[in-house]
Amino acid sequence: MTSRQFRTDENAAFERPRRRTRPRTKDRPDYSAATVGRVVTVDRGRFTVLLEDREITATKARQLGRTGVIVGDEVRVVGDTSGEEGTLGRIVEVEERTTVLRRTADDDDPYERPIVANADQLVIVTALADPPPRTGMIDRILVAGYDAGLDPLLCLTKADLAGPEELLALYGPLGVPVQTVQPGADLTDLRAVLAGRTSVFVGHSGVGKSTLVNALIPDAHRGTGAVNLVTGRGRHTSSSAIALRLPPVGDVENGGWVIDTPGVRSFGLSHVTRESIVAAFPDLDALTQDCPRGCTHETGAPECGLDAAVARGDLAPARLESFRRMIDAGQ
Ligand SMILES: Nc1nc2c(ncn2[C@@H]2O[C@H](COP(=O)(O)OP(=O)(O)OP(=O)(O)O)[C@@H](O)[C@H]2O)c(=O)[nH]1
Ligand SMILES: [Zn+2]
């Protein structure tokens, strides 16, 4: 397969459609034989794509137009895919995404920022102390994860400094699995829940996320340490997420992927709908069958079926309370 052949195909795609109604699939170049890889990081319009056995740098082909390419995307690449110094491939197609984790910069921001594609687990890294846990933030990240259809995992760091009891009481009733870590911790259990999956790690700056990622993936070399806010020096300052492959776990060759994201300060949720949060809890969803039409399920919502379920003994009050925190956070 020569690259010349691809170039010809690509030129065909540049021809302006004569009518807007032209079926999209007709005349579309066939890239089914193009090399497939995964976008592992993005830096100023340059994409690092991991192919089967090598990493290459690529740009986005013009015909992709405004189609975004984000970390985690599975893409088809043509052109020079040797990965040799100074070479550039071209991303010509983005495969359909299984999930998209989005955030808005703040709640008034109408612009959704897709940050990670194709993840299936959201690992919320929170320190038990120094800095103290911010439950409002955890709630918001959870809601973004539920909205995106990701399974949550709460990873509590600095367990040497404080106990997890309070957080367990808040998040246990939601069914969020919890892992605790501290310096020198045995990571066997954590590795087991990451194996074979693609897990996005999010957390506030300073919680020990880089320390944890480095412990999981010794050659990750994620920058750690206190942030010098003035110079920004002495640490990795990438603003993009980065996908890292975990080592095999026992017989499981695919140890999974960690997608490390830069420390988040805010997690705007203006894109989230109430329905998507409720849908993440099938048992509660079922109990809302008898709610009045348009019920918000919030505390005090008249005749909410969830209150009736608690009254009947079909729903634990603590679970309802935690669920309502999610609904409140999403508003
Ligand atoms: N006591 C204690 N300190 C820890 C633990 N994990 C990390 N630290 C310390 O906490 C500080 C912050 O750790 P980092 O790994 O840089 O935190 P981060 O979340 O990656 O922060 P950014 O790099 O700013 O995103 C460092 O001084 C670490 O040595 C832990 O489990 N216990
Ligand atoms: Zn209701």
TrEMBL record:
GTP binds at T157, K158, A159, D160, G203, H204, S205, G206, V207, G208, K209, S210, T211. Monomer. Associates with 30S ribosomal subunit, binds 16S rRNA. Signal peptide: none annotated. It comes from Microlunatus capsulatus. NCBIfam families: ribosome small subunit-dependent GTPase A (TIGR00157). Belongs to the TRAFAC class YlqF/YawG GTPase family. RsgA subfamily. One of its GO terms (molecular function) is hydrolase activity. The keyword 4Fe-4S does not apply. CDD domains: YjeQ_EngC. This is Small ribosomal subunit biogenesis GTPase RsgA. Its main location: cytoplasm. PANTHER family: SMALL RIBOSOMAL SUBUNIT BIOGENESIS GTPASE RSGA (PTHR32120), SMALL RIBOSOMAL SUBUNIT BIOGENESIS GTPASE RSGA 1, MITOCHONDRIAL-RELATED (PTHR32120:SF11).
